[in-house]
Each structure stands twice: as structure tokens, then as C-alpha cells.
Design a protein that fits this description.
By secondary structure, the protein is α/β, with parallel strands linked by helices. The protein contains 14 helices and 15 strands. It has two domains: 291 residues, HUPs (Rossmann fold, 3-Layer(aba) Sandwich), CATH 3.40.50.620; 166 residues, Four Helix Bundle (Hemerythrin (Met), subunit A) (Up-down Bundle). The strands form five sheets. The chain has a four-stranded parallel beta sheet, sandwiched between helices. The protein has a four-stranded antiparallel beta sheet with strand order 5-6-7-8.
């Protein structure tokens, strides 16, 4: 396997620290609002990374945090507290509401839950312990109840984003003040003013942790000082990821993460300039996952995300989603035809020669996914297979149930288990897809009964109503099949 390591800017062979085992940490959401499609791009992408690692036989421990305290805005206001004031709610009400909303969205998108989802507020002692270690090693200093990391004490600071400290002085959002030695020094602990609700006791007085220290403390607690993969969005490379590395390596005297994987942004076209800009809450140009799911199937959104390499930006548009819908339906029409024919196919392994084509598809899929989790090429392998499946099933070649089962298993394994695009045939797929298929099958049965009763007007009415919904019927000798138009 090859992974493009942002730390070093090159593709590298993947060698886990412990053979057969992988530790992966991905920066999770700050839970003060409903998640949007930009979040979906990151977490669907890492869902496929996790699925593929397990498909390859690795014992994966996947940790993804929940930020519920310490994520400060430019004016140093905590995002959760700001949202709580807007809603006239308690901070933990906000956190619970949007944490549940986040997991609802991820479940709807078929994103498998991380093994551990630790909260920042539940790991304040670990954060304090790491801050104390940094002070003891002269990498941090306390002043007036605040604690700052001394960036000049770390000769490697800036190695992930390739920013030099002297070039960052004018870019830093933290101005000199409050006793800071350098404008780029960042907060590990902040003094809590009397009105600040989220507050803990510490050796430096009552306060709360900074944003960056949470990931370092929780990654060390659950994965160790040095682990395999760190993931997140490219927009957090500086300052968040850069600060994670600095404080972790200085506190632990060890490398932090061996491989850094960062996802490209999800962009939308600026209505005035017509150029792609990042979808974000701060710009107000976002579409929530919940709103998107009102218009598109979960698998269509996943298909849209996965047709772009995880590290590349992608532009959201109605045209792009229409293309994703068409591509996903082509795969599903073939898979649906396979399953329908399984109900009436002869016993045995007629058409077994197609097994070689399935073996080739699995090999091709593994080859492209081994190359930095290249999901667009993985989808292309499935589309090529779909072309050949359609040729086989629409030919006069007899295909036995065993061969059809092998085709179905290939789709379920590559398209389902790994990419999360193909619903299972046993009822374990998302409820919407299962209900849709069951309702269409029921209408087909009603139409068949109408034809048997010579009620052709009723039969045609059912066919036309389904056509109006974008579902076409094809009457064959072995029964009626349906396809999405």
C-alpha cells in the first residue's frame, strides 16, 4: 500500500508500527451546529479508508474526537458558548444536541462509527498533565492564569505546513499581549473570566483548555505517543495540525503520527464571482447534511464524494450531483438485475467462466485502492465490471444461481463493504433503499395480478405511474424487472 504523506509531501509505502495493526486518529467535529456537506466529504473519505484497511485484514483502532470545549473564534470566544448564548441554552445542551445530530447524519450516510469517540471535556485531566510536561521541559510558560506553547523552543515548528515562524508573525490571529513572548505562541490553557461557564481547576487557576491540546492528549491516551495515521481536513493544517505535532513531540519526546492524510475542501461556486470557494459555516454558504438528504439518497452523496480523490477539492453543484445519481443508479440497476435473476435462475454454476472476470475486478480494485485509497478509480473498476455484467445478463448465455451469487458478492464486498455504495440484499441496507425496493416489487406484483385478471388499463396505469417516478419496467420471459431511469 502507498499513502501520500502530507508530512514530507510524497507518496510512501505504508508500514504500520505493529504488523497487522493500525492506529488512526481523525480530527472530529466541533459540535455547535448541524454538520454540513464539507464535513461529509472528510468523514465519508475516512470511512472508506477505515473500511479498506479492515478489508485488507488490518486490525484497526479508529479514534475520532468530539470537540465540545476550547475551539476559540478569532476574538477568543468559545464557539460552544457563543452558540449557547444565541439559543439561550446551557453549553452542554448545545453539545448534546449537535453531537447527536452529527451521529444521526453519519449513520444516514452509512459512515461506520469510530471505535472511540472521546470528548474534549471528558479529558481535561489528560490535557493538564500534558501541559505540565511541556512546562517542565521549557516548551511552555504560564502567565496570569494562561499557559502558552513557546514556538521558538521547537526547532521543527512548521514542518507540516512548511511555514517558517518568522513568516507567521503578521498572519497570526493572536496579537502580542497577555504576557505572550511571541505572537505565534498559542494557548494551551486559558484563564476563565467570571462569566465563562466552561471552567475547570488547574495548577494555573480556574480556566479551560485550548483547542489544539485536546487532540494531542486524547491521541496519546488511546493510541500512544507514536501512532500510524492522523487524518483531518486540509483547512486545519495550520494552525491546528501544526500545533498538535509541536506540542505532542515536545511533550512525548517521540514522533507523533507517521502518516498525515488530509482531505481537500468541498467548495461551492461564489454567486457573484463564479469561482469555487470553500463551504464553511463562517461564510454562511453551507448546505447541511440533513437538507442534502432531503433531496438526494445517501448513496448518491457518497458516490459524489468518492468520485473525487480524498485529497482533492471538489465543487458541489446540482449538475455534479445529477452525474453522481446517474453513475450510482447504473451500478444499482445491474446489481438489482443480478438479484432478480437469482430468484429464477437454474441451480448450479452455469456461466462459471465469468468468475475469471470477477477475480480480475477484485484484483484491479485492490491495486487502485492500494494506491493511496483511490476511490475514483475503484468506482471505475466497478463501472467496467457493470458493463460486462449487463452484457452477460442481457445475452442468451445461461447463468446459474451460483455465478449470480458470486457477482452479487463482488458488488456487496467492493461496492458495499468498502465503498458503502451497494446496499446488502439481506435487509441490512439503509431503510430508505429497502423500503423503496419493497414498494416497487409490491407494485410489480399488483401489475402482474392485474394482467392475469385481464385488467390491462390498471396494468398500464401502474406502469405509467412508475415511469413518472423515473422507474422503468421490462417484461421478460422469467418475470418483470425494474430499473431507475
Amino acid at each position: 500500500m502507498q499513502i501520500f504523506n502530507v508530512l514530507g509531501r510524497e507518496k510512501q509505502a505504508f508500514t504500520p508500527i505493529h504488523e497487522g495493526r493500525v492506529g488512526m486518529y481523525v480530527c472530529g467535529p466541533t459540535v455547535y451546529e448541524h454538520s454540513h456537506l464539507g464535513h461529509a466529504k472528510t468523514y465519508v473519505s475516512f470511512d472508506v479508508v477505515a473500511r479498506y484497511l479492515r478489508y485488507r485484514g488490518f486490525d484497526l483502532l479508529y479514534v475520532q474526537n468530539i470537540t465540545d470545549v476550547g475551539h476559540l473564534r478569532a476574538n477568543e470566544e468559545d464557539r460552544v458558548l457563543v452558540r449557547a448564548a444565541q439559543l439561550n441554552a446551557k453549553p452542554m445542551q448545545v453539545v448534546e444536541t449537535y453531537t447527536r445530530s452529527y451521529f444521526e447524519d453519519m449513520d444516514a450516510l452509512g459512515v461506520q462509527r469510530p471505535d472511540i469517540s472521546p470528548r474534549a471535556s471528558g479529558h481535561v485531566p489528560e490535557q493538564i498533565e500534558m501541559i505540565e510536561a511541556l512546562i517542565a521541559k521549557d516548551h511552555a510558560y504560564a502567565v496570569d492564569g494562561n499557559v502558552y506553547f513557546d514556538v521558538l523552543s521547537d526547532a521543527d515548528y512548521g514542518k507540516l505546513s512548511n511555514r517558517r515562524v518568522e513568516e507567521q508573525q503578521d498572519e497570526s490571529r493572536d496579537l502580542i499581549g497577555s504576557g505572550k513572548r511571541h505572537p505565534v505562541d498559542f494557548a494551551l490553557w486559558k484563564k476563565a473570566e467570571p462569566e465563562h461557564i466552561l471552567r475547570w481547576n488547574s495548577p494555573w487557576g480556574v480556566g479551560f483548555p485550548g483547542w489544539h491540546i485536546e487532540c494531542s492528549a486524547m491521541a496519546r491516551k488511546y493510541l500512544g505517543a507514536n501512532f500510524d495515521i492522523h487524518g483531518g481536513g486540509i483547512d486545519n493544517i495550520y494552525p491546528h495540525n501544526e500545533n498538535e505535532i509541536a506540542q505532542s513531540e515536545c511533550a512525548n519526546d517521540a514522533d507523533f503520527a507517521n502518516y498525515w492524510m488530509l482531505t481537500g475542501s468541498l467548495n461551492v461556486l461564489d454567486p457573484d464571482e463564479g469561482i469555487p470557494v470553500k463551504m464553511s459555516k463562517s461564510l454562511g454558504n453551507y448546505i447541511t447534511i440533513k437538507d442534502a438528504l432531503e433531496e438526494y439518497r445517501p448513496q448518491e452523496l457518497r458516490y459524489f464524494i468518492l468520485t473525487s480523490h480524498y485529497s482533492n477539492p471538489v465543487v458541489y453543484s446540482d449538475e455534479a450531483l445529477a452525474s453522481a445519481k446517474s453513475g450510482w443508479e447504473r451500478l444499482m440497476n445491474a446489481l438489482r438485475l443480478v438479484r432478480q435473476q437469482m430468484n429464477s435462475a437454474p441451480e448450479g454454476d452455469a456461466g462459471a467462466g465469468f468468475r475469471e472476470r470477477l477475480t480480475q475486478a477484485r484484483e484491479d480494485f485492490g491495486q487502485v485502492m492500494d494506491d493511496d485509497f483511490n476511490s475514483p478509480r475503484g468506482i471505475a473498476v466497478l463501472q467496467d465490471l457493470t458493463r460486462d455484467v449487463n452484457i452477460l445478463l442481457n445475452s442468451e448465455t445461461e447463468v446459474g444461481v451460483d455465478t449470480l451469487a458470486a457477482i452479487n458478492d463482488t458488488y456487496e464486498t467492493l461496492g458495499g463493504d468498502v465503498l458503502g455504495l451497494a446496499p446488502a440484499a439481506d435487509g441490512t441496507a439503509s431503510g430508505d433503499s429497502q423500503r423503496e425496493a419493497a414498494l416497487i416489487d409490491m407494485l410489480i406484483a399488483m401489475r402482474a395480478q392485474a394482467r392475469a385478471d385481464r385488467d390491462y388499463a390498471r396494468s398500464d396505469e401502474i406502469r405509467d405511474q412508475l415511469a413518472g417516478l423515473g422507474i422503468s419496467l421490462e417484461d421478460r420471459a422469467d418475470g418483470t424487472i425494474w430499473k431507475l431511469q
